[in-house]
Design brief:
12 helices, alpha/beta, five-stranded mixed sheet, globular
Length: 385
């Protein structure tokens, strides 16, 4: 495969680690990156080390900003009711986006910013802009793939960004690491437009969904019928809550007694009090993770038979529990068994999110160059069930 030129939208935790990990992968060249304040583009390849070094602890974020500022578009309703994302546009100026592009898996939440030089514009490669996504789209003819490291609490934001690329006739790959089941339908609603443009969109391509969804798809091959899939994850955040505000806020929405709206409206003091109440360890059950929809669309099992939960420790480097995938089913000779896949405790969240994301990005490029366009889940790129 020829060298893949890719862009990263959002330089919080996911975006930064993607750029870092890409240097250890053959055939990948980062040529563009953006946050809400600026953009860096070099078709010969970004100086990733300089970009990461100059923006360390200097992330462009702000609690009073809507993620639509990334694209220069008008804020819209986020479609959080799960029924539709086509409700009329309404102004949003809330804390829910928690740092916008910097908020996902390790980004700042209104703390790590340094005036006019926040984020990418602090780099010698960065240029200030009010329309960073539009600036990337303008250069997209020379970009093979785009990784979306954008906030998930504005649930229709990623689908709308994909639509903007399609409207600009982008022909290439888009990959995200979203974690909500309802977003898959929003992408499916845009599939024809993506196909017409020539876009191969790989959704939910991080750890879970993504890595573990693919593991479940492989484990299912032993069976003629899958009865249940259980995903149980453990994450220890090396840098603590302050550096991971966005992902912690998003995960809180999965706790018993909480939902998306309550998580969006919580103040920082309320979140820190909740963390203190649980001694820094949050446990989740029956999460609305996209693994269920993605496994169902691959024909492996019904979404209702997929159960996702886990434990998040925001005060320790160590994983609080081992991450496992268990697939229970019936074999062709009538036996019932359970295949279990286990991640080593030494592998970090960053490794298990960004390594697979770049792997799925490569798989997306192979499919795109073969003329396969539309919306694909991680299990769709595994052996068929």
């Amino acid at each position: 495969m020829d060298d893949i030129r890719f862009a990263v939208l959002g330089t919080g935790g996911i975006g930064r680690r993607t750029l870092e990990v890409s240097q250890h992968k053959d055939g990948l060249t980062a040529v563009a990156a953006c946050d809400r304040n600026g953009v860096a583009i070099d078709h010969d390849g970004l100086d990733v080390d300089e970009l990461l070094e100059t923006t360390e602890g200097n992330i462009a974020s702000g609690p009073q900003s809507s993620p639509d500022q990334l694209s220069g578009g008008e804020p819209r309703d986020s479609g959080l009711d799960g029924a539709s994302d086509s409700t009329p546009a309404t102004p949003t100026d809330d804390f829910a986006s928690d740092g916008g592009a910097a908020a996902v898996e390790g980004g700042g939440g209104g703390v790590k910013q340094h005036g006019e030089q926040a984020g990418i514009v602090a780099s010698e490669q960065g240029d200030p802009t009010e329309t960073p996504i539009d600036d990337i789209i303008a250069e997209s003819d020379a970009i093979d793939a785009v990784l979306l490291a954008l906030p998930n609490l504005e649930h229709d934001f990623i689908p709308r960004v994909a639509e903007r690329f399609a409207e600009a006739d982008y022909e290439g790959v888009m990959v995200d690491v979203l974690k909500r089941s309802r977003v898959i339908g929003m992408l499916d609603n845009r599939e024809e437009k993506l196909k017409e443009s020539g876009i191969t969109f790989v959704c939910g391509a991080g750890a879970t969904p993504g890595f573990l969804t693919g593991a479940a798809a492989l484990a299912a091959q032993s069976f003629v019928e899958v009865e249940e899939v259980e995903i149980w994850w453990g994450v220890g955040l090396k840098s603590g809550y302050e550096d991971n505000r966005g992902t912690v806020r998003e995960d809180i929405a999965h706790l018993d007694g909480y939902d998306i709206e309550t998580a969006r409206e919580m103040s920082e003091d309320e979140i820190e009090a909740l963390i203190d109440e649980h001694d820094g360890v949050l446990e989740f059950h029956d999460m609305e993770h996209a693994d269920d929809v993605l496994l169902e669309r691959a024909g492996i099992c019904d979404a209702e038979d997929v159960h996702v939960g886990g434990v998040l420790d925001v005060r320790s480097d160590e994983k609080p529990t081992t991450t496992t995938v268990s697939v229970t089913g019936t074999t062709f000779d009538g036996e019932t068994g359970t295949n279990t896949f286990e991640l080593d405790d030494a592998t970090s969240m960053e490794a298990n999110v960004n390594g697979p994301a770049l792997g799925y990005l490569k798989a997306g490029v192979r499919n795109n160059r073969a003329g396969h366009y539309g919306v694909f889940g991680p299990a769709d790129l595994m052996p068929g069930f």
